[in-house]
Design a protein that fits this description.
240 residues, mainly beta, Porin, eight-stranded antiparallel beta barrel, 2 helices, 8% helix, elongated
Amino acid sequence: MKKYLTVTLIILTSHLLFAQDISIGCKAGISWSGINGRFDFKNFDQTQIKNRVGHNFGIKLNYGITSFLTLQIEMNYEEKGFDFQNDPWITGIAYKGNFKTKYISIPLILNLEIGKNVKYYGYAGCYLGFLLNVENYTSYSSTSSPDLKIYDMSYEPTEFNKYEFGGLFGLGAKIPLCGKVKLIIDSRYNFGLTKAAKNSDYNFNPNQWTKDTPNNFQNVYNRSLTISLGILYMLNDRKN
């Protein structure tokens, strides 16, 4: 299926390059990402998930189907992941950390635009993501000892899936700057439809919290909100 989707995207991109009313652009912004699902640190099931701030940037190709409907394909670099920590009053051990994931994503989007000079648009679409790298940092300190010691429990994650398929929707505006150049202000919500990590359920043993004890992922899906600024340059004008 991935091969057929890749071939389709190549054919579509080639067709758009030779079509009328084509714009090409670039963008960059920040994102707030997290997960929907269950994550437990080691053998502690009181993990609190928090959003993580990351960066994103990419390029886009925009094809005007009509005066108010456009088709857009992109290639983006995106940082995702999440922060986590526990409640030390419950476990007696204070731990915190994060997972950092980096993706290349290829969204296919349909935009609905309104306005004459400044154009406002809403859109929806889907994306295919390819995992580039994943990192984990984890530390913990015991509150049951008078001597505060911080231990590094980081490890190299292998639970995350290499591919991700998801959906997206958003709002934005195109503001003319000069001639064929427009400023793009864009906000977007991305939601994974395939699991970001493999399920790794295990039997809890509260007395086992060593580095070899696995973390627990259950039905974990990526979620992210991105805000970006960009420039769009019109290559061809629509024929009248």
